[in-house]
Amino acid sequence: MDAQDYRMAREDVAALDNPQAHGLRVSRLDPIAWEQRRQVVPMKELPTESWARTIRDHGLRVEMTYNGSLRVDSPWPGGHVIAVIDGEHRSYDAVPRGALNLAIDLSLEMKDVAARAPASAAAAVAGF
What we know:
Elements: H1 3-17, E1 25-29, H2 31-37, E2 42-47, H3 48-58, E3 61-69, E4 80-86, E5 89-95, H4 100-110, H5 113-116, H6 121-127
Antiparallel strand pairs: 1-2, 1-5, 3-4, 4-5
């Protein structure tokens, strides 16, 4: 099995483990609006599958943010703001409730990967 086949198999297993995240979308947020005012300002959307692949391919860390719960009347009802970290660079994503288990799984999976294979901020941003 080559690297591409392995990655596809891993994504299939992740989809089976968390089928409710299939077909959902994650929104990249304006980092200044989030960091300074805790304001959720979406900038770009990505399917959860592509979001997870970008995190894995670039060895990024995933963390739940403090006070990051999203309101029930938001476009991501009951979701959470997730920090995606590449060294010093932090980006923030609004993750719908149905994809929170995927975010938690990615956080655990990538915990040690970031230390072994640091990714560049430019590559991470370009991938999203």
